[in-house]
Every structure is written in structure tokens, then in C-alpha cells.
Amino acid sequence: MNAAETPFWGPDFAELSSTDPEIADVVLGELDRLRGGLQLIASENFTSPAVLAALGSTLSNKYAEGYPGRRYYGGCQQVDRAEELGRERARELFGSPGVDVHVNLQPHSGASANLATYAALLQPGDTVLAMSLPHGGHLTHGSKVSFSGTWFRPVSYTVRRDTELIDYDEVRDLAHTHRPKMIIAGATAYPRLIDFARFREIADDVGAWLVVDAAHFIGLVAGKAIPSPVPYADVLTFTTHKVLRGPRGGMIVCKPELAQRIDKAVFPFLQGGPLMHAVAAKAVALKECLQPSYQTYAQRVIANAQALADGLASEGMRPVSGGTDTHLALVDLRELDVTGRQAEERCDAARITLNKNAIPYDPQPPMTASGIRVGTPAVTTQGMTEGDMKEVATLIGRAVRDGDGSAAHDVASAVGALVARHPAYAR
Ligand SMILES: *Cc1c(COP(=O)(O)O)cnc(C)c1O
Asked: Do the Cβ atoms of 268 and 75 come closer than 8 Å?
């Protein structure tokens, strides 16, 4: 193979600039934005140049409906290798001696992985017990604006008012009352560890499937920094672009006996041809996750999130549940008399990107919200440490309290100096 000697093997920004200067300007402008500010959105990360190279490759051209060795199109020899390598790496990463798993790398997104799982395990109208959206659940866990709340019958569990932790007694009681066919554990804005053994016990009590939507924290599992749900879940769905640091996309890991149901639900029930450039990029990311350096990374992500939560607490912003065990913190701003939306806008003006977020039992509507959510996957990838997180917390504090915008310029300069010490996508 001498493709590397030929000019057309992959992404070529000079070519993009001459063909389409407007889109080239968007791509480079986005790189400037990423490099020039603090990226604290908990679901984002900086994927590696190796992952980006696979994403920008000619694998994007290939139709490969089906699975390795059983495709509906010819010419799949190379893409089959990519998908097989990805599956092997995922089995190594998420299986363990005595616990074999089946892997599907084709879901286009986390939401697609969830839809495929509903399709594999349920009939329309079946009852699903999952975390309430305002308490940190995901739209695909029963919201009325999603398939999950219109084609299925959702029942929601919440967090306790006093501890802001999942109310496992309520989960058990709701399961006994409503007899769900499927229980989902996992959330988008829950900073604490989830007791998967407890969920398994409850699911077994009522004969429900246990699905763990690990989109947010699967990278921490891959990095062995938090306990794995694999021994407990029937099906694990997740995204590959959050802490895991792969390309944008979804994945499913399930018990071997559910392999056929899951595979058929992804294709042909739900999707057509897989995005083979994304499948190959997932394989690259999974290889990166198998390196010892990734385990160090996962531990640092958590240490940074804890330092950030502590720092924000000293700025008068209360971490929901008192802190975090993961990569994210949810912060209650009511003591500062600032809404989540105001905080998001003020931080944005100071080149700090984060999102407003409902807190449990939030008195504000979701578009206003009383809190913000911050996460450390991206800043940790660019090499920031706990000392930097103290500074980040101070800068967020200044920006959030900056009602008249007079501090935005100074905070933005301090942000610029901080990110210059830890450049993202440095050459
Ligand atoms: C991010 C997320 C999803 C959806 O992923 P998309 O790729 O945006 O569709 C699903 N579930 C949870 C818990 C998530 O955090």
C-alpha cells in the first residue's frame, strides 16, 4: 500500500480553502474559538488528530449495509477490517474475564442507540421507567417531545430533595406499581456514581430489562476511573464523543444473547448504511482508550471536576449534591441571585463556554434555569490540572457576577492567558 505517497488520502485544508473559502473560514474560525476560550460543556471534548484523520478519510464513501462478513454491497474488505478491529477493542475494553459482551458500532448518535434499544426490547405502548428530565435524565428517557414519551409509556423517578441523590426507594416503588418492561439508569446532568447493583435488583424484582445509558460517563468506565455497569446491564448505550473522546456517534454494548436483536434493530430496522469513516474513527478512539495514558486522563478528569466544584463553592455557587464523583458538576446559582441563562451569557462574553442547566426542583423554567453545568473532559485533554481549576472557578465567579459587563474584557484576557499555557490542538 502506498496511498500515503499519493495526494488524495485524506483531509486537505488547502484544497478546502480554494474550493470553498466560506466553509474553510468556518472550520478555521471554529478552531480559533476552541483554542481561544475555555470549553466547559460537560458533553464535549477534543478528539485526537488520529481520530480526525479517520473521520476525514475516503471511508466516508463506502456503502456497507449489514455487518462484517454479511454486507449487502461488494468492496467491503477494508471497512470490514475497521469494524472488526473496533469491535475487538470494545470487547477488550468493556468485557472482562468471564464477562463477554457483544458490540454494535453503527448507531449514528446516542439518541439512535437508544431508539434502537427500545426497538430491540419493547413494543410501542410498553412502560419504561427512567430518570426525570428536569432531574438530569435525557430527552430519550420519556420526554413528550421525543419518540420515547409518545410511542412508549414513560414513568419517571427523581432525586431526593434532601440529598439530591437518586431516590432508589422511589425507583423500587414505581417499578412495583407500574411494572415497566425496561428500566433506564443514566443521565445527562447527574454528578454522582449510580448504584447499578441496586438497579439490577429492582429490575430483577419486576422482570424488567436494565438498560444503562452511559453516554456521559462511559469514558470514565473505559479509563477504569469509576465502576463499570457492564456486569449489571442487559444493554449499555452510549455516545463516543463525550469523555470517551472519539468521533461524534453512538455505540451499544450488550449481553451476547441480545446480539441479534440489537443488531437487527440498528440495521435494518432503524438505520441504513453505516458511517464507515465514523466506525473507523471509533476504532481509533477505542485503541486510544486502551492505553495506560487514557487511564491517567480519566483520573485527572475527575480530580479536575472535584477541584472545579470546590472552587465554585468558594465563589458562592453551591454544587448540587455537595460535589461530584465524575467529570461534571451541576451548580446552583440562587445564592448569587443570577439565573442559569444570565450566567451562560455572561460567561460566553468572557470566552467561557458552559451551559445553563435545571437543578433538581428548579423553580425556574428550563430556558431560564437556576443552575449551570460544567465539565472537565476538554480542559483536561488540553493539559489543565487542579491548580488551573482554582483559577477557572475564580474566572467563572467574576464572569457570573458581572451584571453590567464591565469585567468581561478583563476575564476574557485572563482566559486567553490561561489557555495559551495549555493550547488545544497545538502544533
Ligand atoms: C448525550 C446523551 C444522549 C444523546 O446523544 P446524541 O449523540 O446527542 O444523540 C443520550 N443519552 C444521554 C444520557 C446523553 O447524555
From this structure: no
Neighbours of 420 (CB within 10 A): 10
Q: pTM to 2 decimals?
A: 0.96
Q: Whose CA is nearest to atom 5 of ligand 1?
A: 110
CB 222 within 8 A of CB 245: no
Compute, in angstroms, the gap from residue 233 CA to the centroid of ligand 1: 18
Give the separation between CA 103 and CA 88, rounded to whole angstroms. Answer: 9
> Is 109 near ligand 1, meaning CB less than 6 Å away?
yes
- pLDDT tens digit string along 260-287? 999 999 999 999 999 999 999 999 999 9
Domains of the chain: 58-289 (3.40.640.10), 295-421 (3.90.1150.10)
CA–CA gap between residue 125 and residue 176 (Å, rounded): 18
Q: Is 15 a catalytic residue?
A: no
In this predicted model, what pLDDT tens digit does every residue of 58-67 receive, in sequence order? 999 999 999 9
Q: How many angstroms separate the CA atoms of 209 and 198, rounded?
A: 14
Q: Is the shortest distance between the CB of 148 and ligand 1 below 6 Å?
A: no
Cell for 95? Answer: 468485557
Which atom of ligand 1 lies closest to the CA of 242? 1
